[in-house]
Amino acid sequence: MARVFSGIQPSGELHIGNYLGAVQHWVKLQRQHDCLFCVVDLHAITQPYEASSLSQRTIDMAVGLYAVGLDPQHAIVFVQSHVPEHTELNWLLNTVTPLGELERQTQFKDKAQRQASVAAGLLNYPVLQAADVLLYRATLVPVGEDQLQHLELMREIARRWNARFTNNGGFAFPEPQALLSTAKRVLGLDGQAKMSKSLGNTIGLLDSPETIWEKLKPAATDPARVTRKDPGNPDICNIFTIHQGFSSPETQARVAHNCRTAGWGCLDCKRVLADNMIAALAPVRERAQALQAEPSGVRATLRAGAAKARVLARETMTQVRRCMGLLDAGEA
Ligand code: TYM
User: Fold this and answer.
1) How far is CA 14 from CA 76, 79, 114, in A?
2) Secondary structure of residue 292 in the 3-state scheme
3) CA distances from residue 85 to 17, 51, 77, 161, 201 in whole angstroms, order as listed
4) How far is the CA of 95 from the centre of ligand 1 (A)?
5) Which residues does ligand 1 sit against, CB inside 6 Å?
6) How far is Cα of residue 261 from the mean position of the Cα atoms in its chain?
7) In whole angstroms, what is the distance from residue 303 CA to residue 282 CA?
8) pLDDT (tens digit per residue) in 266-288
9) Cα 101 to the chain's mean position, in Å?
10) How far apart are CA 133 and CA 86, in angstroms?
11) Which domains does the chain have, with CATH numbers?
12) Distance between CA atoms of 103 and 37, rounded to whole angstroms?
């Protein structure tokens, strides 16, 4: 079985971009592979954040992941900071990571230009991401398209580390591959930028039916469809991309036909989407409410996940320390 690793930041609500781009895929993969899924709180602190709400947001993200169907019986779900080997490997990998590659990362450049003072942690963000995956020697990483550059750098870091240190004992990191879903880039409701927690253009997975409809009603569609009588093009409509995540193939075909022939207006199309989305998400909200009522149970499940992850992480670190020539504490 291949080993799969992926992560999500607890920097806001779980939204349908995360869900269609990555998390829905995770739920399927957990029954086919050996999976680890991580709430990456240490990544979330690389930008200005509210310390007083971070632990609650971490629990909320875990609740969302369990509610959409991640099952601790099938996948290891844990919080990044509960396994300190992530930061240890991060440091060791920093020593083989070219600074120029970090400065070239588009996510770094985007985030850095929005800040008056840029912390070194933001620059090193992709190295911690490489450590997350390489710590478990995972080979498959299900992510949205925005993570591809980080994945390429991760492979480069693995190659450089292997070239420098593998000779000292035969241990090597595999080069991880990205796994993209069909909805690899869901746009926000503005139809302009990627749907993103920080841009406020999201539909939350746990939003109420009323909120879902209120958000969908004004959402951007095919920009060339100006009046109700104009035929539309589903291929360039973000609402149709979302239909593909929530509506049956028959409904998608009906929606596409009625759009192209101007049989329906955009609002008709959105009403069908809202109904399907609300029906799909009702059981998710219900499970989330039940989990939220028992936060100590969620914390215990996360602790158990971290304990399992740590066993694997320690095995890797023993090899990595040895290959890099660090003195074993036991030999001192
Ligand atoms: P994050 O928290 O931004 O997003 C989590 C996952 O959701 C995907 N995603 C999207 N996919 C399609 N359309 C969208 N609008 C959209 N928005 C988000 C992201 O691509 C991601 O897969 N750096 C990562 C977290 C991370 C990680 C890792 C991922 C840390 N360590 C190791 C993989 C492996 C991030 O910021 O995800």
Assistant:
1) 19, 15, 23
2) helix
3) 30, 22, 16, 17, 35
4) 25
5) 5-9, 17-18, 21-22, 40, 43, 129, 132-133, 141, 143-144, 146-147, 184-186, 194-196
6) 37
7) 28
8) 999 999 999 999 999 999 999 99
9) 22
10) 9
11) 3-186+295-331 (3.40.50.620), 206-290 (1.10.240.10)
12) 27
Which of 28, 111, 215, 229 is catalytic? The answer is 111
Mind listing the pLDDT tens digit for each residue in 22-79? 999 999 999 999 999 999 999 999 999 999 999 999 999 999 999 999 999 999 999 9
Is 308 one of the annotated active-site residues of the chain? no
How far apart CA 290 and CA 304 sit, in angstroms, is 20
Name the token pair of 181: 């879903």
User: Which helix (H) or strand (E) segment is 177 a member of?
Assistant: strand 177-179
- Is 194 among the residues known to form the active site? yes
Closest approach atom of ligand 1 to CA 184: 12
A 10 A CB-CB count for 231 gives 13
Q: Which residue has the least CA distance to atom 35 on ligand 1?
A: 8
Report how far residue 143's alpha carbon sits from residue 22's, in angstroms, rounded to the nearest whole number. 5
The two beta strands, 177-179 and 3-8, are unpaired
What is the rounded CA–CA span in Å between residue 329 and residue 332? 5
Residue with tokens 């632990």: 55
* 217 belongs to the catalytic site: no
